[in-house]
Amino acid sequence: LVTCGMIIWIGIGAAALVGVYNLMGGNRFISGMIMDLDVAPVVIILVMMAILLVLGMFLDWIGVAMLTLPIFVPIIIQLGYSPIWFGILFAVNMQVSFLSPPFGPAAFYLKGVAPPGISLKDIFVAVLPFIALQLCVLAALLMWPNMALWLV
């Protein structure tokens, strides 16, 4: 019950932060600043993916979504990409964060059902190939957006 309450408060705090941020014009400021950069759109998306990966290592996916998507989605639309494609990229990115140390919740779930001789370090080492596979999927979706959108 306490955990549910904490998750709800995190959601409320993230929503309040994003609401004030948007009211103050922060999303328009960041969007304008990013769109004025003289870089390829794929570089902007790669930076977004890196930000999502790092945030996903330390925050719950709901908090990451509430903090980043109101900023990132308008930029994605302005760059001419599909928000559905970006949503799939976000979901794959969050899957990586479920396994990534230091707070990968899936690893802690595995620790809860593992035999007593298995340490958390053993679990994090064992999930490294799965993290690598998910990063390969993320790279493939970035290179071939039609895979995610079924536009073959």
Automatic annotation (TrEMBL):
Subcellular location: Cell inner membrane
Manganese found in the keyword field: no
Keyword terms, alphabetized: Cell inner membrane, Cell membrane, Membrane, Transmembrane, Transmembrane helix, Transport
GO cellular component, one term: plasma membrane
Membrane topology listed for this record: Multi-pass membrane protein
Membrane-crossing segments per the record: 6-25, 37-55, 123-144
Positions of the TRAP C4-dicarboxylate transport system permease DctM subunit domain: 3-147
Primary subcellular site in the record, as a coarse category: membrane
Pfam families in the record: DctM
MF (Gene Ontology): transmembrane transporter activity
Role noted for this protein: Part of the tripartite ATP-independent periplasmic (TRAP) transport system.
Protein name: Tripartite ATP-independent transporter, DctM component
Organism the protein comes from: Halomonas cupida
